[in-house]
Design goal:
heterotrimer; A mainly alpha; B mainly alpha; C alpha/beta; A: mainly alpha; about 0% strand; flat; B: mainly alpha; 15 helices
């Protein structure tokens, strides 16, 4: 016989469900999440749905205005640039470059940074302080300088940007993990677990990790937005993706020559970068406010 | 307190040493001849080759080479720029003040505008004010700085024609560089046009400074707002309210000094991104600073310029971040408690 | 005329589960130069009452009352500016954790001087010095001997007892008529507690200061208070002179609280179970209807789903349908909500 519920018992939701509910209650964060999912789909499937290829040049349609302008046509939805390439298709091809490479960089930095950070966070003594000095030195070289050094050694190109931004981003993950773990180790329940007989690995996995993963998630969202901006900036300076590439920053630098006659060649790729970074920051903000009651 | 300062000095020296080591390793990896990478002399004579070998200990093992490299760089020999044939140290001395000026004006602008706005956002109860401020800061935080610079120079410089979009000063003015800081130099010069030169310098400074100030402004507003909200919930604020103090007095004398402490800490964390953005802004507005010099160095593959520029910028970042940390400890009485505990 | 006269105060909070009556028809009367104790478990709404009297409500509170008079003035009709003026000059409050009630980045001397009354008559160049001297005078009065050291240190450098004495000095410097003490000795050792209570009692006798002493320890309150009010879950259960309540409690809850005090005389057998009420205090979203002690009360019967009115018998008040003095409440029971 099924239980008849007479009392309005309060159902206490699990932690993940509570975080999801708080996150979903914020309309901006949810909109950001939809935008991020859309961007991910574009990054994967973009080149397949683009009407033209990224290099196809139509000599009859040079510097065509976007379709909402009187001079534009619908075939070239967002207009063309000075070589007759369709901007909309180039945006779709470039999503895969800007967004995809950013994700790859952040994932790699996250894994490496997390491993190094946990090891250095859990141990004390001379080795940890040497590691932190090395990290402080690397942290003081911002991504642009690191990119300049990498380009000086290996030459320009998008894969070298991967190394440059990756090397610049990893110390931040290491430092964030190290500080979070260090702070957790000061708490009393770690001492209690030690008294219970847990060894270092068990303390790390069962006691420290569940309290640290929210900091790491927030750092990841910050890292993705920083990586996208850095890749675009390096593309703009021609230190990263080189000229005919449809990477969004490189598109902006290719459009700068025509900025007076055809401002859409600069505005539209810049707007695309703005929208993707905004979406990620909205998700990051939403996550931070959803996770903060747990921290308090 | 002195022990703490000595520890910080120690940290500065250790980190700088690691920086030199990294630069040394990278210099050896440059795809050119080692002598050229170290000094910038393209085709050295036999006598110069011997001099280079002696100075940099190129015939011994790596460790000796590192010591010699350290010795050379610390004594001021940064090589010669391959493109302009002038000593790198001299060029560096002429571009550093320009960057410093731009960065300090942008930082001052950001803090002076950001703090009041953050306090306002935390105290206001209207949902619309809060949401507007959060929307503006989020957009400012997400905007790519090169796009912002291009758009601003397009609107204000070209279409409206109000502000100049490149350089520091109109070429018609001749101002002697005394300190290198153009705002001070124009006021101190003896030319009859010094006041109009000053105004012209300010006009040139406005657009780059505003573009650069957007990132720190948004960070300051958000951190101030969240810290103030946490602080206004604390017991001592309620106790001060219970004593009958007015709200503005509570905010100015009790809440704000407590809020400044985390704000300063976060400014220190933002330093790397700020320097990157400063370099991009210099390139866009043709501002003759370190960033512009370094980026044109990489375009022309001028290796000594690259080494000198990276060294200067990274050393100043290390120095500034340690200074900010010392400032943070100095104004925070609670850190003295931790110092006593740890000593 | 009583100094503070509150009748049927109700505070409603907006929670995610709807509107909840955190305080329901609470009545309190404090006379001049009287120490009035308010005893109740944590979560019974005592701090809410203190804040409502003081005038610093939260932003989702709705306060309604039949009567809320301070010295003949109606508190409900005053503008917030007038309330602000009352705060600090006639009513003051000291809080639970004294070291967190002081600003951690400013030295205590500066905070003390800020809290001292502004002497309008002295010319402005002598004002700071005069305030400093007044501060030192008050520090001596509350029992702090080395004023120099205290005034030049930070809040976290002093012990809890010294911090609480500084808070009391700041609170009474403006010569208020009522001091609300919200669990002033919660985190202190017994000797320091005794010092604080002796100080409060001295202030009450010498200056005629009324004190509303909020605590959860019945023993301490019964030693120091003239009048006592017992509160449970946002409702006043019993109120009256301390000695009579302790000698003969009318309300089952008061009797249970008195029974909770361990019997140190040795007449109780070794390892016998201590008498407590079954169950625990209800959460805000599951408040019982009528008398909120109902589910736990040993005397509860069906009539208790109607909230009993506060009965007045001689100088004692109690709200119970089945009190121990065997006299029923004469008023009609209030209809349930």
């Amino acid at each position: 016989m099924t239980q008849i519920k007479i009392y309005q018992g309060g159902e206490i939701p699990s932690l993940t469900r509570k975080i999801w509910h708080t996150f979903a209650d914020n309309p901006f964060a949810l909109a950001g999440l939809w935008a991020v999912v859309a961007l991910l789909l574009l990054a994967v499937f973009g080149p397949l749905i683009a009407p033209y290829s990224a290099e196809y040049q139509d000599p009859r349609a040079l510097l065509l205005a976007p379709s909402w302008d009187a001079a534009g046509t619908v075939e070239h939805f967002l207009g063309t640039d000075d070589l007759g390439r369709d901007i909309f298709s180039r945006l779709l091809h470039g999503a895969h470059l800007t967004f995809g490479v950013a994700l790859a960089i952040v994932l790699t930095s996250l894994v490496i940074g997390f491993i190094i950070g946990s090891i250095s966070g859990m141990m004390k003594g001379l080795k940890a302080s040497i590691l932190s000095h090395l990290l402080d030195a690397l942290l003081s070289i911002p991504s642009l300088l690191m990119a300049i050094l990498v380009v000086a050694v290996m030459g320009p190109g998008l894969d070298n940007v991967f190394w440059a931004v990756g090397i610049a981003l990893t110390p931040q993950f290491v430092r964030a993990t190290h500080q979070a773990i260090h702070e957790e180790l000061q708490k009393e329940y770690v001492k209690a677990a030690k008294l219970d007989g847990a060894n270092m690995i068990q303390i790390f996995w069962y006691v420290v990790m569940p309290n640290v993963w929210d900091t790491i998630i927030i750092q990841t969202t910050l890292g993705i937005s920083a990586a996208i901006l850095d890749i675009a900036a390096l593309g703009f300076l021609n230190l990263g993706a080189q000229a005919p590439s449809p990477e969004w920053g490189a598109m902006v630098s290719q459009g700068v020559d025509n900025i007076l006659t055809a401002p859409w060649t600069v505005t539209i790729p810049g707007g695309a970068i703005l929208c993707s970074v905004l979406a990620i920051n909205l998700v990051g903000d939403g996550l931070r406010s959803a996770l903060s009651p747990i921290n308090n | 307190m002195t022990r703490y300062l000595i520890r910080r000095l120690n940290l500065f020296l250790a980190t700088s040493l690691v920086l030199f080591a990294v630069l040394f390793i990278v210099t050896n990896q440059f795809p050119v001849e080692q002598g050229f990478a170290l000094t910038g002399i393209l085709s050295p004579s036999a006598q110069q080759i011997a001099q280079i070998n002696a100075d940099f200990n190129l015939n011994s093992d790596s460790f000796d080479q590192f010591i010699a490299y350290l010795h050379q760089r610390l004594s001021g020999d940064l090589g010669i720029s391959a493109t302009s044939q002038r000593p790198v140290a001299e060029e560096l001395a002429s571009v550093l003040p320009a960057s410093f000026e731009l960065a300090s004006v942008a930082a001052t602008l950001a803090i002076a505008l950001g703090l009041p706005l953050g306090v306002l956002a935390s105290l206001s109860r209207h949902k619309i004010t809060q949401h507007t401020i959060m929307a503006i800061t989020l957009t400012g935080y997400s905007i790519p700085v090169f796009w912002l610079g291009l758009t601003l120079s397009l609107w204000f410089g070209v279409q409206l024609g109000w502000l100049p979009i490149s350089g520091r000063l109109n070429l018609l003015y001749e101002i002697e560089p005394i300190t290198g800081l153009i705002l001070i130099d124009t006021l101190m010069s003896h030319s009859p046009y010094s006041v109009s030169a000053f105004i012209d310098a300010i006009l040139h400074l406005i657009l780059p400074a505003i573009t650069l100030a957007v990132l720190p402004f948004t960070v300051v507003v958000r951190i101030t707002r969240s810290t103030m909200i946490t602080i206004m919930d604390q017991t001592y604020i309620k106790a001060a309210e219970a004593r009958g103090l007015h709200t503005y007095r509570i905010v100015l004398r009790h809440a704000l000094p407590n809020a400044l402490i985390p704000v300063i800490k976060s400014l220190g964390l933002m330093l790397g991104a700020f320097v990157s953005y400063a370099m991009i802004v210099e390139v866009i507005f043709s501002w003759p600073g370190v960033g512009n010099w370094l980026v044109s160095g990489i375009y022309q593959r001028d290796y000594t310029v690259i080494q000198g520029g990276v060294l200067a910028v990274a050393l100043s970042i290390i120095f500034l971040s340690i200074m900010i940390e010392v400032l943070h400890t100095a104004i925070n009485p609670l850190s003295r408690k931790e110092l006593y505990d740890s000593n | 005329m009583p100094l503070l006269d509150i009748r049927h105060l109700t505070i409603e909070l907006d929670t995610p589960h709807g509107r909840v009556k955190a305080l329901e028809r609470v009545s309190l009367t404090i006379n001049a130069a009287e120490i009035h104790g308010l005893v109740g478990e944590s979560g019974s709404g005592r701090s809410l009452l203190a804040r409502a009297i003081l005038g610093i409500p939260g932003h989702n509170w709705k306060i309604t009352a039949d009567r809320m008079m301070w010295d003949g003035h109606n508190l409900l009709e005053m503008s917030s500016k007038q309330r602000r003026n009352l705060m600090g000059s006639e009513i003051s409050m000291i809080f639970q954790d004294p070291s967190s009630s002081l600003d951690p980045v400013i030295r205590l001397g500066i905070q003390l001087i800020e809290a001292m009354p502004a002497h309008k008559k002295t010319p402005f160049w002598r004002r700071t010095k005069k305030r400093k001297k007044t501060a030192e005078k008050w520090l001596h009065k509350v029992g702090i001997k080395n004023t120099e050291k205290v005034m030049s240190s930070y809040a976290w450098e002093l012990s809890e007892g010294e911090c609480q004495k500084v808070m009391i000095a700041m609170a009474v410097a403006n010569q208020p008529r009522l001091l609300i003490a919200d669990e002033p000795t919660n985190s202190m050792e017994v000797q320091t507690q005794a010092q604080i209570f002796r100080l409060l009692s001295k202030l009450n006798q010498l200056q005629g200061l009324s004190i509303l002493l909020i605590s959860h320890e019945l023993e301490t309150l019964s030693r120091w208070c003239d009048q006592l009010s017992v509160m449970y879950c946002g409702q006043i259960m019993e109120s009256g002179p301390t000695l009579e309540i302790i000698a003969q409690p009318y309300h089952p809850y008061t009797k249970a609280l008195l029974g909770n005090i361990p019997n140190y005389t040795g007449s109780v057998a070794h390892k016998s179970i201590m008498p407590t009420l079954p169950g625990s205090a209800p959460a805000l979203q599951h408040l019982p209807i009528g008398c909120r002690l109902g589910p736990r009360c040993p005397e509860a019967q069906k009539q208790c789903v109607n909230k009993p009115n506060l009965c007045h018998k001689k100088n004692r008040y109690f709200a119970c349908h089945f009190p121990y003095n065997k006299e029923q409440c004469n008023d009609d029971p209030t209809p349930t909500r």
